[in-house]
Amino acid sequence: MKIRNYDQSIRQIGALLVTATTLLFGSTLARGATLWDGVYLDVFGGFSGLSSGDVKQSGQTSEGSYDGGFLSGLAVGKELSPAWSLELEWFYRNNGVDSMKGGVFDGVSDGDFASTNLMFNAIYTFRRDDANEGFFNRISPYVGLGLGAMQEVDIDMKVAGVEQEFSDHWAPSSQIIVGAIYPINACFSAFAELRYHYSGSPTLDAENGGGRVDADYDGYSALFGLRYSF
User: Contact at 8 Å (CB) between 46 and 64?
Assistant: First the structure.
C-alpha cells in the first residue's frame, strides 16, 4: 500500500487527536480531577483476515480471495467510569491477494489490499468485585463498538504484467470488539481481542485514470496489546 498525501494525513490525524483529547479530558477538568486520571495508551498488533468478496468493474464481477495478513496500531483512551471508556484509535491493515476468479481480473494472484483506519471506540468493561483474588479473577472481559473511517484504502494488483492501483479516502467503517485485559502492575496491562471489521463495498478510483472498482472490504482480526495507564 502506498500512503499518499502523507503530510496532509498527519495534519488531519493531529487535529483529530487534539479534538478527541479535548473531549476526553473535558469532563475530568470539570470535576477538578488531575488531567491524566483515567488516561491510557494502547499499542497492539496481530493477525488480520479479509473475507472473500466481489471486486466489480465495468459491469463484471471478480471473486477475490485473500491471504492472511497483519494489523498494527495504537489508541489513546479515557476511562469515564470503572465500566465505560472512550478511545481514539489508528491502525493499519494489510492482506495479500491470493486469487481473483471471473470478471476483468480473472487469474490475478499478485497484489495486496490494505487500509489505514481512524476509529472512535466506546468500550464497556465487566469489572469483578473479587478482582484482587487470584490470577483469573483479575482478568476483565470487555466489549466495544467502533465507528470511523478508512483514511485510505487501496488495492494493488498486477494485471497482465502491469501494476494497477485503485484507492479511496475517508470511506465509512465500523468494528465490533470482544476482548479481555489483565493488569500486570499499577501502570501496565496486557490485553487480547477479537474484532469484526465492516466497511461495505467502497468505490475505489484508479490511480492511472482508468475505470473505478467496487470492492468488498470486510474482515476480522485477532490482536494482542499492551496498555500504559497514566
Answer: no
Q: Cα–chain-centroid distance for residue 53?
A: 19
Say what the pLDDT of residue 6 is. Answer: 45
| Whether the model pTM is above 0.70 | yes
Separation CA 51–CA 99 (nearest Å)? 13
* Alpha-carbon torsion (97, 101, 102, 106), positive or negative: positive
Reading the block at residue 174, the C-alpha cell is: 465500523
Q: Are strands 84-101 and 53-57 parallel, antiparallel or unpaired?
A: unpaired
Tell me how far apart the terminal alpha carbons of the chain are, to the nearest angstrom: 34
Instruction: Give 43-97 as a DSSP string.
Output: EEEEEEEE--EEEEETTEEEEEEE--EEEEEEEEEEESSSSEEEEEEEEEEEEEE
CATH fold group of domain 6-229: Porin (2.40.160)
Q: What is the pLDDT of residues 116-129, one digit of tens each?
A: 999 999 999 998 76
Question: Contact at 8 Å (CB) between 57 and 212?
Answer: yes
The x, y and z cell numbers of residue 196, run together, are: 469484526
